[in-house]
Design brief:
The complex is a heterodimer of chains A (about 300) and B (about 200). With about 300 residues, chain A is mainly alpha-helical. Chain A is built from eleven helices and four strands; from the N terminus they run H-H-E-H-E-E-E-H-H-H-H-H-H-H-H. Chain A starts with 19 loop residues before the first helix and ends with a helix. In chain B, about 30% of the residues lie in helices and about 25% in strands. Classes of the chains: A mainly alpha (about 300), B alpha+beta (about 200). At the A-B interface, helix 1, helix 3, helix 5, helix 7 and helix 8 of A face helix 3 and helix 4 of B.
Amino acid sequence: MTGERDVGSDMSKSRIRPDRGLVTRMLVTMFLLGLVYVIFVVALSFSGFPWYLVLLVAVGLFLAQYYFSDRIALYAMHARDVTPAEAPELHAIVDRLVALTDVPKPRVAIADSDIPNAFATGRSARNSVVCVTTGLLRRLEPAELEGVLAHEMAHVAHRDVAVMTVASVLGVLAGFLTRMVLYTRMPIGRGRDSNNTAVAFFVVVIVSALVYAVSFVLIRALSRYRELAADRAGAMVTGAPSQLASALVKVSGEMARIPTRDLRAAEPFNAFFLVPALSSGFSLSTLFATHPPLEVRLDRLGQLSAQLGGPA
Amino acid sequence: MGFLDALLGRSKVKRADLDQLFAVPSAALTLATAGFNPTGVGSVCFKATEGGAFAQTEAEIRALLDVDAGPPVELTKDGYGYRWLLARHDPDDVAGLVTDLHAINVSLQDAGFGPSLLCSLVVFDGAVSGEQRRLGLVYLYKRGTFYPFVPLPGSDQRRDNPVELQVRALLGNDLRIEADLSRWFAVWGAPGLTAH
């Protein structure tokens, strides 16, 4: 067996080690986002704009999104809740994950769509729904499906609906404000003289646009970190990060990357390939993506797999 | 999970509670008064982790439990990717059976696979109004609670709920019974429950 170890210090230990870098990046992103919003509100109040109105609308938006997130998402996806009798295998997988993690059981829904996808939503663990599309059910093996469901249930455990709603509401409002002020030329400012009004108008537009742009990038970064965190948590529960990795490869339509064709048979064609591999350098698309690139997720899942299989 | 852990996406898998299992021998005495006798069969169900370390731990556990002169532990895999390690003992030696199950748990936990423990099962045999029934006493590690699972013989995945509820009332003083009935999930085809 494993010899001397300080038994009792941490009985719940998993072989998966905490990722401090990920936590730090998440914290920094959240801090910057908060900072941007504080600057936003301060700048608005200085311009004489009724900023409390902005806050009021923001809070209203937040509550609406927060409370109706599950219904909105299910409605948008044309998904419906399924009972254990209708989808016994799916419920059985979720039941086991619930028993492994001791969380309240989420509702299970299926969306009739051939695009392979899955999502989780709901404001709290008790109101949560995990939804998969029929396209996903058709393509994935049971173990891969379990990896995907564990990932989605990790989103629920991490309260990602609440976190991302809080993160995005003021940013959405800033974008809305920019357009509203620009198009309606809404008179702003308490001063009656037109000079002051023009300055205030200018300030509101510039600040809102900046806040929208910066918060957009930060929200997307936060979303990517949350995805990686959910990948980790899911792998911790299933003990099989490679199953999730395999599911991701299938879902991203990248299965063609692992060729089934024999190397010797394909060899004569290699001469015609102009670019052997696409360089995956930095680009705007990586900055604006809600999910980390597949390569990054596969790399991280590979590291988890090595930790699980290596010495404790 | 705390607020900060949720905010930072650092979920932890809940710690498995191993000690409650030792309450099973006294529950077995209570069950005997109701006509359910131990079969000497018990099993531990866990999620297989990928990689060599897990396979090695699993082999070590089997070697450890097979040193004594009893029947060897049996390893089965179910359709959900879970493993069942089945231990057989003399039906009267419930304490010995529980000790074996505990040894499996501790070995897995010490090797860092505690999060993958799903449930444990101790099988009893009995008759309900003349009909033969197998009773599985299921232990949920992550909640530290027990619940009864009684499949109806011959039928396709139906449970004998009246007997299960009767056992719940019977064992209330011996074991911590799972209060949330929605967590009494079925373990169809679990080893030891079907084989006669």
